[in-house]
Design goal:
heterotrimer; A: 421 residues; alpha/beta; Immunoglobulin-like; Rossmann fold; 2 domains; six-stranded parallel sheet; 12 helices; elongated; C: 236 residues; mainly alpha
Chain lengths: 421, 300, 236
C-alpha cells in the first residue's frame, strides 16, 4: 500500500486501540430465518425492560436442574474497536456465530464506567457500530445469543475508548487524486496562458453552430437557447453558459434575436449577465433586449410546457438545448423537431442523450459538451481544463490497466490500494 | 400521388393513429387485467428488500427522502407506499423528509394512507397499530437540498428543530427511544426521486458519513445508477413502475395479511401489452424504412 | 361503474383530458390547462417557500432574537451556542441570521444599475461553496470508488458470468474513455478502439431509450388508471 507511507509520515496521533482488529474480518452472519426474529407483539418498551432484567440476571435460567440445562453456545470472537479515522463517539463491534446452534437473534450489551451491562440493541447480523458514546471513556461489550430455549452470553471485550481522529486516512487516494488533478489543471492553464499551442480535435457537431445561426439570420427568426434545467453547481450548466456566451456573440454579429428561458433563478441571473456583457463587449449594448433572457418557472414539467409553448408560438429557426436535462428532454426536443427548427443539443445526462440523438440534428455527447465550450472559446482557462481532464483520463486508464495486470499476474490486492470506505 | 408505395405511406403515417393504437392497447388491460408471472430482479429489488429486512439493529431506522412530484407519481408513489408498509410490518422506524416543496403533499398522503391501512387492519385484530411520533415522523421540507443532506450527518435537531406539524422533534417518543441524532443512528437512506438525488446522497451522505444508500428511481434515469449499484455504493434499488410492482409482490409474499392497494401491480398488464405493441411498431417501422430505401434505389 | 362524486377528482380528470388533448392538436383547452399548471406551480412554490423557508429561517429567528434582547440583553441574542460550543446558526433566536440575509439581499441589486456589480458577491459565495463541497465528494463517489470497482482481480475468474461481466465493463470503459479523449485525432490504433467506444455509448443509449419508453408508458398508465378507476369507476 504505497500511500500508507505518506499516511505514516502524516500520522501524528497514534490511535491507542484497546484491541486491534483481527487479521481476518468476521464472516458475515449466518443466514437466520428472519421469520423467527419478528417481534412477537410486545411493545418496544416492555421488550427492553424484560431483556434488561434477563441480561442483568445472567443468561441461563438458574432454576433448571443441571442435567436439563441445554448446551447453548455463546457468540465467538467478540471484538470491539474504535472506528478508525472518524470524528469519535463510535465503536465497531463484530463477532462470529456460535460454533453450534442457530440463535434467533443477538443482543448487544454495553457497560460503561459503572461496570453494569445494559442492552444496547438487538440484531440478526454479526456486526454493529455503536454511536453517541463519550470520547475517551472506556466501554466494554458482550453479545448474548438468543435461542428459542434460552440465552448464552459471550466473553466481555477488553475496554475500548472511542477517539476523535484528525484525518480520514483511508481517504488518502481521494486526496491524491484531487492533488494530481489540480496539478494537471494548473499546469495546463498556465501553458495555455503562455500561448503554448494545445491541440484539441475538432468536434463535428460544432461546425453546425455557425451554420445554424446563419440560417436564423436568413429566415429572420430567433434563436432559442435553453441552458439546461439544472442548477449552477452542475458542470453541464457551467459549460452551457460558456457556449451561451459564444452563441450570443454570433447572434450579435448576425443581428439575430436570442430567447433564453430559464428554470433556475441563479442560472437565470448568470445567463442574463453573460448575454448582456456579450452585447456590451461586442459594442452593441443598446441592442440587448432585457426581456430576451428571462425566468420561466422552477417546476420541471411546467418549464417543459412553457418552452413548448414558446417553440410553437415563436417558431425559432434554431434551438440550442445545452446543459443538464432530465425527463423533460424529449418533450422539448420533439416539439422543437415538429416546428422544423434546426436543433443542436448537448448534455452529459446519459439517460437523455438517446432522445437528443434521435430528435436533434446535432448532439454533443457527454464531455463533448465541455470540449465544445473550450473549443469555441479558445479561452485559456477552458482549454487548460479540457487538457487536464484528458490527462486525468489517461491517469485513470493507466491505473486501471496497470493495477488489473498487477492483480491478475501477481495476485496482489491492487483494488485495495485505491479502496476508500 | 400514385408513386407513393405502401412503405412511404407507412413512414409518413399520422402520429395520431399511433397514439390511438397505444391508447387502446393500454386501456384494455386496465379494464380487463390479466396476470403475467413476474420475476423479481435479484440485484435490485430483492437486494433492497433483503437489506431492509435485515437492518443491523432490530426495529432499525429508515430515513426516506421522498422527492417525488405529481408528474412522476405513477412510478414513484407506489415505491414510497411499499417502503413504508415494509417498515411498519417489520416495526422499523420511519423518518420521511422532502428536499423539494412539491413532494410534501404526496409524502404526507403516503404516510397517512399506510398508517390508516395498518390501523384499520389492527381494529379487526390483524397486525399492529402505528402511531405518529412512535413509529414514524414526518420532518417536512428544508432547502436547499445540501443543508439537510449534510446537516443530518451532524445533528438532526439543528436542521429540523421541529417536525412538519410543528412538534418539538426532541420530544417525539421515537426520537428518544431510538436515540436518533445523526446518520450514525439510522440504518439506511432511501432516496425516491426522478433526478440524480440518490447519487447526491452517495456523494455527500455516504462518502462523508458512511451510511448505506438506496434509491427508488424512475425508469428514465435508471441507467445513471447502475455503476453505483455495481460498485456497492447503492444497496439495491427500485427501477420504475416494474420495480415498484416487484416490491409489492415481495411484501405480499412475506406478509400475506397485507391487503393494501397495489398501485404498481395494477398497471403491469397494461405495461406488458404496450411494450409488445411498441416492439412490433419499432420492427414494422424499420421494415418500412428499409423497404422504402430499396424502392427508392430501384426507382433511380 | 361508480363514477366519482368528489369535486376535485372531476377537476383533476378534466384537466388530465385537457392536457392529453394536445396529442390531437394544439387547442385552447390544452393552453388553458398549461397556463393553469404554470400558475399553480409558481403560486404553490412561492407559498411553500414563504412558510417553509422565509418564516422559519428568517422571520422567526429575528422575532425570537428581538424577544431575547428585550429580556436578556443584546449579547444573549448574538451568542447562542450548541452543545459543542459552536455558534449555532439554526438556533431559534439568533441575530446572526442578518449576515446571510444581507448577502442574499444583494441579489436584488440587479435592479439598481449603479450597484448591480454587487450581485457577484452572493453568486461568488454560492459557486465557491458548492465547488468546494462537491469536489471531494465527486472524486470519492464517482471517480475513486468507480476506479476501484473497475479493476479486475483473480477472484473475478471464479465464475464465468462474473468474468464475462467484468471483462465487458473493463473493455468498454477503456474504449469509451479513449473515444472521449480530445487531445489526439482518432487515427491508427486509437480509431478501432474509439469505434468500440462510440458503439458502447450507442448500446447504452439503446438500453436507455428502452427504459425511457417504459417510464413514459408508466406515466400514461398512471393517468389512465386514474381516469378509468378513480374517476369513472370502471375497474374494481
Amino acid at each position: 500500500m504505497w500511500y500508507w507511507f505518506l499516511a505514516f509520515v502524516l500520522l501524528v496521533s497514534p490511535g491507542l486501540y484497546a484491541q486491534e482488529s483481527p487479521d481476518s474480518p468476521a464472516p458475515p452472519g449466518e443466514s437466520i430465518d428472519s421469520e423467527e426474529t419478528i417481534a412477537t407483539g410486545e411493545t418496544i418498551s416492555s421488550e427492553f425492560q424484560s431483556s434488561d432484567m434477563e441480561s442483568d440476571m445472567g443468561a441461563i435460567p438458574a432454576a433448571l436442574p443441571a442435567e436439563e440445562i441445554p448446551t447453548l453456545f455463546p457468540p465467538q470472537n467478540v471484538v470491539a474497536i474504535d472506528v478508525p479515522d472518524d470524528d469519535g463517539q463510535a465503536v465497531s463491534v463484530t463477532w462470529t456465530p456460535p460454533t453450534e446452534g442457530r440463535p434467533t437473534r443477538y443482543i448487544l450489551e454495553i457497560a460503561g464506567s459503572d461496570g453494569f451491562f445494559e442492552e444496547l440493541t438487538r440484531t440478526t447480523l454479526t456486526e454493529y457500530t455503536v454511536s453517541q458514546l463519550e470520547n475517551n471513556e472506556l466501554y466494554r461489550f458482550r453479545v448474548v445469543a438468543v435461542y428459542e430455549n434460552g440465552q448464552s452470553v459471550s466473553d466481555e471485550t477488553p475496554p475500548v475508548a472511542p477517539r476523535d481522529h484528525w484525518m480520514k486516512l483511508d481517504e488518502i487516494p481521494v486526496i491524491l487524486a484531487i492533488l494530481i488533478y489540480i496539478s494537471l489543471l494548473l499546469y495546463f492553464i498556465q501553458a495555455a496562458r503562455r500561448g503554448v499551442e494545445l491541440f484539441i480535435r475538432r468536434i463535428s457537431g460544432l461546425t453546425a453552430v455557425e451554420d445554424a445561426i446563419g440560417r436564423a439570420t436568413e429566415m429572420g427568426k430567433p434563436v432559442l437557447y435553453i441552458p439546461g434545467t439544472s442548477s449552477i453547481e452542475d458542470v453541464a450548466t457551467l459549460a452551457s453558459l460558456n457556449i451561451l456566451g459564444e452563441v450570443a456573440r454570433r447572434t450579435v454579429h448576425y443581428d439575430v434575436k436570442i430567447i433564453c428561458p430559464n428554470k433556475d433563478p441563479i442560472v437565470y441571473t448568470i445567463a442574463r449577465e453573460i448575454v448582456k456583457e456579450t452585447y456590451a463587449s461586442e459594442g452593441r449594448p443598446d441592442a440587448f433586449d432585457p426581456d430576451s433572457v428571462f425566468f420561466l418557472v422552477p417546476d420541471q414539467f411546467a418549464f417543459a410546457a412553457g418552452v413548448d409553448g414558446i417553440m410553437v408560438r415563436e417558431k425559432p429557426a434554431t434551438i440550442f438545448l445545452m446543459g443538464m436535462f432530465w425527463a423533460e428532454s424529449l418533450i422539448m426536443a420533439e416539439t422543437g423537431a415538429s416546428t422544423g427548427a434546426i436543433q443542436i443539443a448537448g448534455t452529459d445526462a446519459v439517460a437523455q442523450l438517446p432522445f437528443f440523438i434521435t430528435a436533434c440534428d446535432y448532439t454533443l455527447i457527454g464531455e463533448e459538451l465541455y470540449a465544445a465550450s473550450a473549443y469555441l472559446g479558445r479561452e485559456p482557462m477552458l482549454l487548460g481544463t479540457l487538457k487536464a481532464q484528458d490527462f486525468g483520463k489517461l491517469v485513470f486508464l493507466f491505473i486501471m490497466i496497470v493495477f488489473t495486470l498487477l492483480s491478475l499476474l501477481f495476485g496482489l490486492d491492487a483494488a485495495g490500494w485505491v479502496r476508500v470506505r | 400521388m400514385e408513386n407513393k408505395t405502401i412503405w412511404t405511406r407507412m413512414m409518413n403515417i399520422d402520429r395520431r393513429i399511433i397514439y390511438v393504437i397505444v391508447a387502446i392497447v393500454m386501456i384494455l388491460p386496465i379494464i380487463f387485467p390479466f396476470n403475467l408471472p413476474m420475476r423479481v430482479s435479484k440485484r435490485t429489488t430483492q437486494a433492497l428488500f433483503d437489506a431492509i429486512d435485515n437492518f443491523p439493529s432490530e426495529n432499525g431506522v429508515f430515513l426516506i427522502s421522498a422527492d417525488l412530484s405529481p408528474q412522476d407519481q405513477p412510478e414513484l408513489y407506489p415505491m414510497l407506499v411499499s417502503w413504508i408498509r415494509h417498515c411498519f410490518h417489520r416495526d422499523i422506524k420511519v423518518l420521511v423528509m422532502c428536499l423539494y416543496p412539491t413532494s410534501l403533499g404526496l409524502a404526507e398522503q403516503a404516510l397517512n394512507q399506510v398508517a390508516t391501512e395498518f390501523n384499520n387492519r389492527a381494529s379487526t385484530g390483524i397486525g399492529r397499530r402505528v402511531v405518529y411520533g412512535e413509529d414514524f415522523v414526518f420532518l417536512g421540507y428544508k432547502p436547499p437540498p445540501i443543508v439537510p443532506i449534510l446537516g443530518l450527518g451532524e445533528n438532526i435537531y439543528e436542521v429540523y428543530p421541529r417536525d412538519f406539524y410543528g412538534n418539538d422533534l426532541r420530544t417525539l417518543p421515537m426520537m428518544v427511544s431510538k436515540r436518533i441524532k445523526s446518520y450514525r443512528d439510522m440504518d439506511m437512506i432511501g432516496s425516491i426521486a426522478a433526478n440524480s438525488l440518490p447519487i447526491t446522497y452517495v456523494a455527500y451522505a455516504q462518502a462523508r458519513f458512511g451510511i448505506r444508500v438506496t434509491g427508488g428511481v424512475t425508469a428514465v434515469s435508471v441507467a445513471d445508477f447502475y455503476p453505483y449499484l455495481d460498485s456497492g455504493q447503492l444497496t439495491g434499488m427500485l427501477e420504475g413502475m416494474k420495480g415498484a410492482a416487484e416490491y409489492e409482490q415481495l411484501i405480499v409474499e412475506k406478509f400475506p395479511e397485507d391487503n393494501g392497494r397495489r398501485m404498481a401491480t395494477e398497471g403491469m398488464s397494461a405495461q406488458s401489452s404496450t411494450h409488445i405493441a411498441i416492439i412490433l411498431m419499432i420492427l414494422l417501422g424499420n421494415v418500412c424504412y428499409f423497404m422504402q430505401r430499396r424502392h427508392e434505389k430501384r426507382g433511380i | 361503474m361508480h363514477i366519482a362524486t368528489d369535486f376535485w377528482t372531476w377537476v383533476a380528470a378534466l384537466l388530465t383530458l385537457a392536457i392529453l388533448s394536445f396529442l390531437w392538436d394544439d387547442n385552447s383547452f390544452y393552453r388553458a390547462a398549461e397556463h393553469l399548471y404554470i400558475g399553480v406551480a409558481n403560486g404553490y412554490s412561492i407559498t411553500l417557500i414563504w412558510y417553509n423557508v422565509v418564516v422559519p429561517n428568517m422571520i422567526d429567528p429575528l422575532r425570537g432574537a428581538a424577544h431575547v434582547v428585550s429580556e436578556q440583553g443584546f449579547a444573549a441574542a448574538f451568542f447562542t451556542f450548541n452543545e459543542h460550543n459552536v455558534l449555532n446558526p439554526y438556533h431559534d433566536n439568533n441575530f446572526f441570521i442578518i449576515i446571510p440575509m444581507m448577502v442574499g439581499a444583494l441579489y436584488v441589486t440587479r435592479f439598481i444599475p449603479s450597484i448591480s456589480w454587487m450581485i457577484r458577491i452572493p453568486i461568488g459565495i454560492t459557486m465557491g461553496y458548492y465547488t468546494a463541497i462537491s469536489i471531494p465528494a465527486s472524486f470519492k463517489a464517482s471517480i475513486v470508488r468507480q476506479l476501484e470497482a473497475s479493476i479486475l482481480s483473480r477472484s473475478d475468474f471464479d465464475s464465468a458470468w462474473v468474468l464475462v461481466y467484468g471483462l465487458l465493463i473493463f473493455v468498454t470503459t477503456v474504449a469509451t474513455l479513449i473515444y472521449f479523449f480530445f487531445s489526439a485525432e482518432h487515427k491508427g490504433v486509437l480509431r478501432p478502439i474509439s469505434n468500440i467506444g462510440i458503439l458502447t455509448v450507442m448500446v447504452g443509449f439503446g438500453a436507455s431509450f428502452g427504459l425511457t419508453v417504459m417510464a413514459r408508458i408508466s406515466l400514461a398508465i398512471g393517468r389512465f388508471i386514474f381516469i378509468f378507476k378513480d374517476w369513472l369507476g370502471m375497474v374494481q
